[in-house]
Amino acid sequence: YELCEDQSKQGVAYFETRFSPHLLASPDGFLAKDFKCLSPERVVQCVTKGIRRGENDFKIKARAILCCINQRPDWASEVLELCKLYRNEGVVGIDCAAGEPKNGEYDQRIIDSFLRAKDLGIHRTCHAGEIPNSCKNVAFVINEMFAERIGHGYHVVKDPYIYKSCMHKAHFEICPFSSYLTSAVTSDFNKGKHPIVQFAEDNVSFSINKDDTTITQTTLDDEYKYLMNLGLTEAHFVKSVSCLNLEV
Questions:
Q1: The whole model's pTM is what?
Q2: DSSP 13-67
Q3: What is the mean pLDDT of the chain?
Q4: What start and end residues bound the annotated signal peptide (predicted)?
Q5: Helix H or strand E encompassing 241
């Protein structure tokens, strides 16, 4: 509810928030089962209820994406089930977050959940290409897990062949301030050119997003101003916000 209020005050008309139902239920995923106090499903119910109230009170449109966690592939099937159960209650997609494997070596349980999501018509986004030597992950999640959007994806530009083969197959969710704060993009990355600048030059589908705002303390306007210093123009921003969101 308060997230809707914050976004409305910043002039946002539509946003998607993503979270792990299991991690919000308890840090290790076991507390809820042991004490029967808060389940991952109850988390989704509470979040979607808050979103609906926020939409009504603040005249904003908001949706949720549920995250699988790479380190806990045993949660993936339940995440998919929650996406299916609450797809008409504001949940518009499934994600995979929290670290990346090497060379596309995703756990089969996560892969299977994404394949099943595709069969069910549930939209798919996946964190990939955020850490060094992870460009192969971008190719894998697009070609083998049918991801429609890529969270971050910066390192895909490091491999010209993979970049060329993937650049028009998916949408890239870029988080400028976060990319530097996490060292996903460093000052010497790509000869000093931020990947979003290259995406813009190459007509790649991308959007400008906020990430970990409790830490970064940025607004979307801050992200735009930051990118203008990197050379992006208002035309690039217009293109980025015209991309389709996950809701059909």
A1: 0.91
A2: SEEEEEE-HHHHH-TTS-HHHHHTS--HHHHHHHHHHHHHHHHHHHT-EEEEEEE
A3: 90
A4: none
A5: helix 234-241
Q: How far apart are CA 15 and CA 219, in angstroms?
A: 13
The answer, yes or no, to whether residue 146 has pLDDT greater than 60, is yes
Element at 174 (helix H, strand E): strand 171-174
| Catalytic site residue from 16, 78, 100, 130 | 130
User: Is residue 161 classed exposed, middle or buried when 0-12, 13-18 and 19+ CB atoms within 10 A define those classes?
Assistant: exposed
* Encoded tokens for 183: 């060292």
- pLDDT at residue 35 above 60? no
Q: Which residues pair with 68 in a beta bridge?
A: 96
Amino acid at 188: D
Percent of all residues in the chain with a pLDDT value above 90, rounded to a whole number: 68
Residue 174 has pLDDT above 60, yes or no: yes
Catalytic site includes residue 201: no
Nearest to 46 by CA among 72, 11, 17: 17
Query: What tokens were used for 58?
Result: 């603040």
| Dist CA 207 CA 212 (whole Å) | 16
Q: Could you tell me if 48 and 89 are in contact, meaning their C-beta atoms sit under 8 angstroms apart?
A: yes
Interhelix angle 40-58/2-9, rounded to 10 degrees, is 40
Q: Select from 2, 5, 78 the least CA-distant residue to 44.
A: 78
